[in-house]
TrEMBL record:
Top-level division of the source organism's lineage: Eukaryota
InterPro entries found in the cross-reference section: DHPH_N, FAD-binding_protein, FAD-depend_C, FAD/NAD-bd_sf
Organism: Arachis hypogaea
PANTHER family: FAD/NAD(P)-BINDING OXIDOREDUCTASE (PTHR42842), FAD_NAD(P)-BINDING OXIDOREDUCTASE FAMILY PROTEIN (PTHR42842:SF3)
Pfam families to which the protein is assigned, alphabetical: FAD-depend_C, Pyr_redox
Domain Pyridine nucleotide-disulphide oxidoreductase N-terminal: residue ranges: 213-270
Protein's name in the database: Uncharacterized protein
Domain FAD-dependent protein C-terminal: 407-621
């Protein structure tokens, strides 16, 4: 329900005798969304809303001077037979024809190619498209165009913005690489008077008495970019990596693959560049491809040797062969800045005194007994360990550093012949792939399924329902590799080289798991997820018989729960063994995989076949924990001077998002140490977001918030939920003050499975929108689901907490952003609450889909929370 914004800013008076029947009938907008495919009505339709939004955007997008700046042209379609191919990134004749068509210029050949540049190119071969096409986005340099071809001036004068097709950028500011950004800041800063200067209205530099000493633990993307920022800003940085540089690491991986010798500290997981070095090197991200932060990361990679094609490709990737020389160049640059890099060095402990991190205790990775440890003092400790640094988690727990168990996903990796995937996706165009050397990209896929009550029907199991199953880390033209860090465990992943020329395609098919799954196996506490991972990694190792042999099963045998010995070939080089993988996981996870496999075969006919081979086990899709940190300073909420960043800390998922988080953390640490002051967004653009929701204030005395999901970009973050709860009510030490959740129908959505709210309830209502959230493709298939978001009981004057900034909302009709990591709600909900387990699933990148960032996410379940407000008073902070 959407309520009329308040005209008062006073804290609403709470009445204990309130229920839904007391709600007045509001004349406000009724926001109910559901899908045409469900047979339910949709009013107002999404298309009508988009048209209204487009008119609003166009009304405020009048171009003051059409002959300055840049015009950006979207969705320029060139048929495959007229395009030179995926590797051609210049202006072709066919593309020039499309540009002339948009400009309404009569003779395309008279247009100067130098005035145009391709900024995005992707391949569209969907079945519903009449013919496969390359889709281009092109920038037009107006001044250069007119100077080279004066006849175009009249045509530019008639050009008008069209949402999603034509856009004008008056003051286009290209974001450079991170090195040039920081150096431009420093050069501008020193021009000021008395040691101060203004940059973009706010930035200034302050003189510091000495270089602060900072240690960065971990040489993955987040650690490298945090180090780069801090070193460029003038800090004395030491980078510690337990693994080896890429040259030595490559030899260690070769010894593993050829002679089965596993180096515990230098392998597919540990070493320079992190786990992503020996992987597919994907640079696809869901945190905003065109944001300043992501562009800065991408251009920095180009600076260190990545091909410029990654700036244009619709699905950019590097591949291991390109990452190795890139990391070598990155290392040399850091060393030129004076960074001390210690490879083969393990952090055994963090020196904490009076609640402040003051250094680290280290030893050589080869020193198994840690007999020659050394203590090193620093002003700040940046913890950028990856998701496999389990010993670091245990060490943090011994210091009472707050760790929160985080939902993740586990499953199996399925492998097909690449030619089969090409045929499924491209049909007769499969021959155009030519093992990565043809005109079209090597075919990949992305599938997702949400299992609800309707899917199970006769065999309904509440443990199976309300789970997501989806493909993860799809590696076209790749191979299956070992990512175990212990000989007694079996864990796998996928990797590929830049050309993606392998005969196989593989992807993980994983199912979301929550704290309820961990507790079912008697694993409790912050590291319950870690023990859950170990349970099945050890079981998979035993199924394979040891010696790093992977247990496998054909997809058909897995679906039918059969034991078969005839196996198709596998790309895994250490050997495979037939095993009953349908007995590996608990029944509800196996059933979720089986249910989803059947659906994936309908979406991709031929997906289930005799060549489809399942490998076990994939458990390290993301970090099993999160280390709470301050939203602005990135500092741990438990220990001062400790800055957890990246995927290992629970704030990223993939190379780009980890690099962005490390970069932002570098600026945050520099700001804490007086190396940098001001507004980061004015330098890099909007910071990485973590699942924002819009809210409107209510003029009802209860102060209900209507929450609508607007954006869905990344994973869980911080303790904003707890802070906001405490902000309104103080610290709720007694969890019994909050009674269980109850589901109620949400208008036409009608997807609830629980009962109605308790009759005769006299408690105030804490309303929230959320639930099983689905986005649809035009062909009617649900492509992805996300866990619910829950809103908080609000007041008309409140502090809205969101990543990287805090906004004071004290005016009427004011809108803001809130982020709610739902694990934090467990602190306030009694264990016996009859709550759907998905309520505690946070927003994670792996459950997302790029289309969800375009407003297709809609809540389908509404929640009702009864709150006993007796003896509760508004906290002074509110």
């Amino acid at each position: 329900m959407a309520l009329i914004p308040s005209s008062s800013c006073a804290f609403p008076k709470i009445h204990t005798a309130f229920c839904f029947s007391n709600l007045p009938s509001y004349q406000g907008r009724l926001r109910i969304f559901c899908s045409k495919r469900t047979g339910k009505q949709r009013y107002p339709s999404e298309k009508k809303q988009l048209r209204t939004k487009h008119k609003h955007l166009l009304s405020g997008s009048k171009v003051t001077n059409k002959f300055e700046g840049t015009w950006r042209l979207f969705k320029l379609l060139v048929p495959l037979d007229q395009d030179p191919g995926k590797d051609f990134l210049d202006i072709s004749d066919a593309l020039l024809q499309q540009i002339a068509k948009v400009l309404k210029f009569p003779v395309a050949s008279l247009l100067p190619r130098e005035a145009f540049s391709v900024v995005r190119k992707s391949f569209d071969a969907r079945k519903r498209v009449k013919e496969p096409k390359f889709v281009h986005t092109v920038d037009v340099d107006v001044e250069r165009l007119i100077s080279l071809q004066p006849r175009t001036r009249d045509f530019i004068s008639r050009l008008e913005p069209k949402v999603g097709l034509v856009e004008h950028m008056q003051d286009r500011k290209d974001c450079g690489d991170l090195i040039s950004i920081v150096r431009d800041y420093k050069e501008t800063a020193v021009k000021g008077e008395n040691g101060h200067s203004i940059l973009s209205g706010e930035l200034h530099q302050t003189k510091v008495s000495r270089k602060p000493k900072i240690v960065v633990v971990g040489g993955g993307p987040s650690g490298l970019f945090a180090t780069l920022v801090l070193a460029e800003l003038g800090a004395d940085v030491t980078l510690i990596e337990r693994g080896q540089p890429v040259e030595k690491r490559g030899r260690d991986i070769g010894a593993l693959v050829v002679r089965r010798i596993l180096e515990l500290e230098s392998n597919f997981c540990f070493g320079e560049g992190g786990a992503g070095t020996w992987s597919d090197g994907k640079l696809v991200t869901r945190i905003g491809r065109n944001t300043g932060s992501v562009l800065a990361i991408m251009r920095t990679l180009v600076h260190f040797g990545a091909p410029e094609q990654i700036l244009i490709d619709g699905k950019p990737h590097l591949g291991t062969d390109r990452l190795v020389p890139l990391l070598r160049n990155f290392r040399r640059h850091l060393q030129d800045l004076g960074v001390t890099i210690k490879f083969g060095t393990r952090v055994d402990d963090i020196v904490i005194k009076d609640g402040h991190a003051q250094g680290v205790t280290v030893s050589e990775s080869a020193d198994k007994l840690r007999l020659r440890s050394q203590q090193m003092e620093y002003d700040a400790v940046v913890l950028a360990v990856g998701h496999s640094a389990r010993d670091i988690y245990q060490m943090l727990l011994s210091h009472n550093v707050e760790l929160i168990p985080k939902d993740f996903a586990v499953g199996l990796r399925i492998e097909h012949p690449q030619e089969l995937i090409n045929s499924i996706q491209y049909s007769e165009l499969a021959s155009e792939v030519a093992r990565g050397r043809g005109k079209v990209p090597v075919a990949d896929y992305k599938v997702a399924n949400y299992i609800d009550k309707e899917d199970l029907r006769e065999s309904y199991d509440p443990m199976v329902a309300n789970r997501s199953c989806y493909s993860f880390c799809m590696c076209p033209g790749g191979q299956v590799v070992l990512t175990s860090t212990d000989p007694s465990e079996m864990c796998i992943n996928g990797m590929s080289f830049s050309r993606r020329a392998s005969r196989w395609a593989n992807a993980a098919l994983v199912v979301t798991v929550t704290m309820k799954d961990f507790e079912a196996l008697n694993y409790y506490g912050p590291l319950a997820g870690v023990e859950f991972q170990r349970e099945f990694e050890r079981k998979a190792a035993m199924m394979g018989g040891g010696n790093f042999i992977v247990p496998v099963q054909t997809a058909t045998d897995f679906l039918n729960k059969l034991s078969g010995s005839s196996l198709p070939p596998s790309s895994y080089r250490l050997g495979v063994k037939a095993a009953n993988l349908h007995q590996l996981f608990p029944d509800h996870i196996t059933e979720a995989l089986q249910n989803s496999l059947a659906k994936f075969d309908k979406e991709l006919p031929g997906f289930i076949c005799k060549e489809a081979l399942l490998h076990g086990v994939e458990t390290r899709t993301s970090s099993p924990i999160q280390i709470p940190r301050d939203i602005l300073s990135y500092e741990s909420t438990s220990v001062k001077g400790l800055y957890p960043v990246g995927e290992g800390a629970g704030y990223a998922g993939g190379i780009v998002s980890a690099a962005v988080d490390g970069m932002h953390a570098g600026f945050a640490v520099a700001k804490q140490l007086s190396l940098f002051h001001g507004d980061l967004e004015s330098v890099l653009g909007k910071a990485q977001s973590f699942g924002f929701v819009n809210f409107l204030h209510s003029d009802h005395e209860l102060g209900t918030i209507h929450v609508q999901m607007e954006d869905f970009q990344s994973c869980n973050c911080g303790n904003a939920m707890a802070k906001t709860l405490e902000g309104y009510f103080g610290n709720l030490e007694n969890p019994e003050q909050i009674s269980p959740f109850h589901k109620i129908p949400c208008g036409a959505a009608g997807r609830t499975t629980g009962g109605a709210p308790p009759s005769g309830s006299n408690s105030p209502v804490l309303s929230a929108a959320g639930g099983a959230v689905r986005s649809y493709r035009r062909d009617g298939r649900a492509i992805s689901y996300a866990a619910p978001v829950c809103s908080l009981f609000s007041v008309t004057q409140c502090v809205a907490t969101c990543p990287h900034h805090v906004k004071q909302c004290s005016k009427t009709n004011n809108e803001g952003n809130m982020h709610f990591p739902s694990q934090m709600l467990q602190k306030y909900v009694p264990a016996q609450a009859n709550t759907d387990p998905d309520m505690y699933c946070g927003f994670t990148a792996r459950q997302a889909h790029p289309e969800q960032a375009h407003g297709l996410l809609r809540p389908l379940i509404c929640w009702r929370l009864s709150l006993c407000t007796q003896n509760l008073q508004p906290h002074p902070r509110a």
